[in-house]
Amino acid sequence: MNGEPLLRFVDVSKVYPLPAGDVVALDHVSLTVEHGEFIAVMGPSGSGKSTLLNMMGCLDVPTRGKIYLSGQEISGMSDDDLTRLRRDHIGFIFQQFNLIPLLSAVENVEFPLVLKTGRTESRQRAVEVLRMMHLDDALFSHKPGELSGGEQQRVAIARALVNDPDLLLCDEPTGNLDTKTGMAIMEILATENREGKTIVMVTHDPGVAAYARRTIRIVDGRVA
Amino acid sequence: MFFSFAMRNLRRHWVRSGLSIIGIVIGVVAIASMGVMGNSINLLAANIITDVGDTVVVTPHTAIGGTFAGDPRTAVDAAIPAREVEEIQRAANPHRAISVLQGADEVEFGRGESGYAGIIGLAPDDIPLLLDLAEGQHLRQNQAGALVGIHLAREYGINPGSRIAIGGEDVRVAGVLAERGIGFDINPDYAIVVSDGWYESHFGTKDSYPLIIVRVGDVDEIDTVKEAIESRINRREEVVDVSDSREMLGQYEEIYDQITLFLLGIGGIALVIAAVNILNVMYISVTERIREIGVMRSIGALRREILLMFLYEAAILGLIGSILGGLLSTAFGYLISVAAIEVATAGTTFGEDFTVFDQSAVGFIIFGMVFGIATSIAAGFYPAWKASHLVPVDAMRQK
Fold first, then answer.
1. Nearest to B298 among A59, A84, A102 (CB)
2. What pLDDT, on a 0 to 100 scale, did the predictor assign at position B348?
3. Residues of chain B with C-beta less than 8 angstroms from the C-beta of A104
4. Is residue A193 domain-resident?
5. Contact status of A120 with chain B (Cβ, < 8 Å)
6. Domain containing A47: what range?
7. Which of A1-10, A23-32, B42-51, B257-266 has the lowest mean pLDDT?
């Protein structure tokens, strides 16, 4: 840490040009995310929550304004540099889990580590993180299609954590889970946050948002 | 890791992968066996055509131009008058100009067997300059004997000392000629060689010749000899056509190269069709996995890694197809070559001991395999490139 916030948006706008006219997804957004925060991003559908999360995850670049990750401006970075940034510093958890169907549970977790280190002998670390997620060892070799929603989300969280990222971005992490499983997943995230991980989470659910320590509300692309 | 991905994905869609591999196999087999067949025809031609590199062949001028003894155009009933032959001899001096008499007659070979055969009349002194003996003796001056071509001798069991009847006239076989192959001047393997004296006594006196052969000895002097004959004989009008075996052989090689190229082209078309199939399969694979590609990119897979993963898939399809195709080509190319040679040499004993496969044949199989792999990779490149350039966010939105 260099005294800079983990994430800083300065007057960021995102405009999608469409034949029917430009759509402004983010409109002059300025915000900061400090190290160790747990933030819930809430707002109605189409308000720009996902666009904000994509910008934070270096999956998209702003039309105007600047984004700094640990003080480093990301707008002018090449695709390869942005990809390395995602790989090494950001973990993603999706509503649809988005596990790779060809790979087993443990291989899914191993995948980002192999991308980072280029080594295929990353099994031990993957197993360690999966056990932290309380996934039964017997399920490690199962393909995603053979796992329940809750089990898949545990694998997805393990995959997001395996490279020890600075920032964990969660897009409706409990949206496809029943209440009990959803709460269990939120407990895992809360534990990760207590242990120092910075989390930004998009959710519609106030119960889930209650786990966060700060809430950012987005309406019509603006921070309300 | 990405290689393993590629393997798993191909296994996941094994029917689709199998069909692509069959396409490549067909392409490689077509290109390699067509190449092998073209090469075999080439080899056969090279094997049976006599390359008499130091020979100038003089024939009567025809409207079409240069000709040689095996050319159907020699059926044109034209001959070089004896006075022109003397001029040719002077022009070719000090090289020997050999006058050749050629005809055909019914020959009885004994044991009730008979048939028409070519009869070649040569001065006995000239015969050793042109032809070698397999067994027996050369003809002597004023001797009523015959030399029999080796294939004719084998077919009818003729040996030195045997007796044959040419046009009802009994002749003793003095010797059997060594195999010469198809020549650009004379083709004695299936013919009978007699002395010019006997020929004229049998067929009547000729004062003209259908063919003059000049043995130059030194290949560097061929052009000088040709120019000397041309300038002396064709001074006022085209009386003779003058050619040499090198240029005729060159024309033959050119024709056979074109045949090989044509056959390779047919194989190439098959491979292009296989490549379109791979392109299609890869395209489907990319389309089906857009979301997966988006996830991989979002968690840190670089563009070149995605590109590599799809290229591996195309390369694996190409490699398996090419190896299978190479193995099949070896068998299929051999069979098709044997069949082609049998058809080409039907009714003759040419090419009897001929081996179809040589280094060039193996080269064509390797070429087919390399071409198969390269075509597969090339076909996979565009879908792979497209996959690697998907925008992660857009890709992940795909259902």
1. A59
2. 57
3. none
4. yes
5. yes
6. 36-61+77-223
7. B42-51
Cβ atoms of B195 and B75 within 8 Å: the answer is no
Residues 174-193 in A contacting B (C-alpha not used; CB under 8 Å): none
Mapped to the 3 state alphabet, what secondary structure does chain A carry? CCCCCCEEEEEEEEEECCCCCCEEEEEEEEEEECCCCEEEEECCCCCCHHHHHHHHCCCCCCCEEEEEECCEECCCCCHHHHHHHHHHHEEEECCCCCCCCCCCHHHHHHHHHHHHHCCCCCHHHHHHHHHHCCCCHHHCCCCHHHCCHHHHHHHHHHHHHCCCCCEEEEECCCCCCCHHHHHHHHHHHHHHHHCCCEEEEECCCHHHHCCCCEEEEEECCEEC
In one letter, which amino acid is B376? S
The model's pLDDT over A157-215, given as tens digits with 9 standing for 90+, comes to 999 989 889 999 999 888 888 888 888 889 989 998 999 999 999 998 999 999 999 99
Dihedral angle over CA of B182, B188, B189, B191, nearest 10: 130
Average pLDDT of every residue of chain B: 82
How far apart CA B329 and CA B368 sit, in angstroms, is 9
CB of A35 closer than 8 Å to CB of A1: yes
The position carrying tokens 């983990």 is: A6
In a domain, A4, yes or no: no
Is the CB of residue B88 less than 8 Å from the CB of residue B80?
A: yes
Select, from the ranges A135-144, B182-191, B352-361, the one with the highest average predicted confidence (pLDDT): A135-144
- The pLDDT assigned to A200 comes to 96
d(CA A69, CA A79) in angstroms, rounded, equals: 16
**Contact between B330 and A144 (Cβ < 8 Å):** no
By the CB < 8 Å criterion, does B7 face chain A? no
Question: What's phi and psi for A164, nearest 5 deg?
Answer: 50, 65
Task: Tell me if chain B has a CB within 8 Å of the CB of A144.
Answer: no
Work out how many domains chain A is built from and give that number.
1
CA angle A195, A197, A202 (to 5 degrees): 130
Which among B387, B207, B237 has a CA at the least distance from the CA of B314?
A: B387
* Secondary structure letter of residue B1 according to DSSP: -
Residues of A in contact with B291 (CB under 8 A): 98
Kindly identify which residue of chain A lies nearest to residue B391, measuring between CA atoms: A59
Q: Which of B349, B374, B358 is nearest to B31 (CA)?
A: B374
How many CB atoms are closer than 10 A to CB B372? 31
- B349: pLDDT strictly greater than 60: no
User: What is the pTM (predicted TM-score) of this model?
Assistant: 0.68
| Residue A162's CATH number | 3.40.50.300
3-state SS, residue B209: strand
In angstroms, the Cα distances linking A173 to A93, A183, A188, B158 are 6, 10, 11, 98
Test A112 with B291 for CB contact under 8 angstroms.
no
pLDDT at B66 over 50: no
In the structure encoding, which two tokens stand for residue A105, read together?
Answer: 């549970």
In angstroms, the separation between the Cα of residue A85 and the nearest Cα of chain B is: 8
pLDDT greater than 80 at residue A61: yes
Chain B hits for A161, CB-CB cut-off 8 Å, are none
With beta carbons under 8 A apart, name residues in chain A contacting B299: 86-87, 92, 111-112, 115, 159
CB < 8 Å to A79, chain B:
303
Partners of B293 on chain A (C-beta within 8 Å) are none
CA dist B362 and B367 (Å) reads 8
Nearest Cβ partner of A102 from B8, B301, B396? B8
